[in-house]
Amino acid sequence: MDNLIAPMSFSRLQGVNVGNAQDNNAKTGVTVFFFPNASMASAVVLGGGPASREVPLLDPLRNTQPLNALVFSGGSAYGLAASDGVARCLEEHGKGYDTGFGLVPIVCQSCIFDLSYGKGNVRPDREMGYEACLRAIEGNSPLSGNVGAGTGATVGKPGGMALAQKSGIGYAAARLGKLEVGVAVVVNALGDIFQDGEKIAGMTTADRKGFVSAEHALLKNQYSDLIVGNTTIAAVFTNASLGVSDLQKVANIASTGMARCIRPVFTMADGDTVYAVSLSGGVVQSDVNTIGVLASLVMEKAIADAVLSSKITEEEYLANI
């Protein structure tokens, strides 16, 4: 980033707390982004196979309500059960939309497919979701690497898990004047991962001592039945005051950071999704294009953080596939 943009710690963002829970033996987990004051959000779904909860609610054409929490998890569609625990925890703490007949917490969720790593018959459930939410309510732990929803994340999978590598969850944030933007991302991609044009993780050679291009492997073999165990999910958080339509555009522009770092991306074998959240209390006025471009640059940093913070031994990786 150039001199106009000042890096900052994600934990310094006001209006969002992060909590994690995971099963380190089964290699799966949950990350909850809790908003002490409910916050407006939108999203774009760019991959062909998303596993999600309530994302249509964030469409500008819907009666969008502010979010109480955003949930990322492993477990594919099974992992959606985690939000039941999140909603219960939020209700117990007096958080939710008041219907007049009771509180209904507004919770959206996206899941990665991590069933091919660790123990695929163990998935995030309502208890794990409750635990992660409680930790987010009580504190703030935006931890990178093999934690929470990033516990079972992997990348570079056109050749199967034996040629793939470990990834995880990553964070980055930056300030441009008074404007603040943070990104959290779980990198669980079909494709390879690049930092400043250099490949840092992805599909390997058979002896795992070098790299093979995931794009070239896909084109060479013309896979008609790609491995479906993918999905990169990200969220952009900003202190700018934005409506739902503008937030959706920010999410869309931010996704260009994914395209620069993940190759291939947005395939039918991925469920790639990007959220954008205007943190409650944010009063900064800024142009949508400025916010989106800054978010795309921060996205690149967060993707690299997810990979570089998730290094494990070759023996440990191979023992879990």
Question: What is the strand and helix layout of this fold?
Answer:
Elements: E1 6-8, E2 17-23, E3 28-45, E4 51-53, E5 67-73, H1 82-92, E6 97-98, E7 103-104, E8 107-111, H2 126-138, E9 154-155, E10 165-166, E11 169-176, E12 179-186, E13 192-195, E14 198-201, H3 214-221, E15 233-238, H4 244-261, E16 262-263, E17 273-278, H5 288-308, H6 314-319
Helix pairs in contact: 1-2, 4-5
Fraction of residues in H or I helices: 10-25%
Q: Return the structural class.
A: alpha+beta
- The termini sit apart by 37 Å
Largest sheet at a glance? 10 strands, mixed
- Rg, please? 18 Å
Query: How large is the count of helical segments?
Result: 6
Determine the strand fraction and express it as a percent band.
Answer: 25-35%
Overview of this structure, please?
- This protein is of the alpha+beta class and 321 residues long.
- It has 6 helices and 17 strands.
- The chain has helices at 82-92, 126-138, 214-221, 244-261, 288-308, 314-319; strands spanning 6-8, 17-23, 28-45, 51-53, 67-73, 97-98, 103-104, 107-111, 154-155, 165-166, 169-176, 179-186, 192-195, 198-201, 233-238, 262-263, 273-278.
- Strands 1, 2, 3, 4, 5, 8, 11, 12, 15 and 17 form a 10-stranded mixed beta sheet that branches. A 3-stranded antiparallel beta sheet has the order 14-13-16.
- Strand 13 and strand 14 (198-201) form a beta hairpin.
- It is globular.
